[in-house]
Design brief:
The protein has 157 residues and is α+β, with helices and mostly antiparallel strands. The protein is built from seven helices and three strands; from the N terminus they run H-E-E-E-H-H-H-H-H-H. It starts with a helix and ends in a 5-residue tail after the last helix.
Length: 157
């Protein structure tokens, strides 16, 4: 994709974001921010299955949603990432092992390299959401209730 086409694609995702909005039944809600630019992203993640030993399918992402404010690059990156994740339903491990360089290349190295904090905010926040779901599932398997897990995470009811 040439530079002009890539910029048009990013602007389209900024003006018409995909999968924007909270997931009511999300397993994790994780905020992230870029203090240098003032970008804010909250990622919502719903895991497939229950995480009770169900194999690879239980460690797949069923759906993601997001909310945020910020620059064109950070918001377009969140939209593009959410679109791909909701299309492909990757495993938790695939997300955790996704190198930042791959996201930079997807967005356009010539555009994203100048502002990596903006370009990578959604990916970093999604990785944190995956880790949250994994830990919550481990706590649940260890006998903790949802209320106890919320209390441990200091989340409001």
């Amino acid at each position: 994709m040439d530079r002009e086409t890539r910029i048009a694609w990013l602007v389209d995702h900024y003006h018409r974001p995909r999968h924007r909005g909270a997931l009511a039944d999300a397993d994790a809600r994780v905020p992230g921010g870029n203090p240098g630019c003032g970008d804010l992203i909250t990622m919502y993640l719903k895991g497939a299955g229950t995480g009770d030993g169900g194999g690879v399918e239980a460690s797949r992402i069923a759906a993601v949603g997001w909310e945020g404010v910020g620059c064109t690059l950070s918001q377009a990156a969140a939209s593009i990432l959410a679109e791909r994740v909701n299309r492909d339903h990757p495993t938790f491990e695939e997300i955790l092992s996704l190198p930042p360089e791959q996201m930079i290349d997807l967005l356009g190295r010539h555009i994203a390299e100048a502002r990596p904090g903006c370009a990578l905010l959604a990916l970093g926040t999604l990785k944190a959401a995956v880790k949250t779901v994994e830990m919550n599932r481990k706590l649940k398997a260890a006998g903790h209730t949802e209320a106890q897990i919320r209390e441990l995470r200091l989340e409001p009811s």
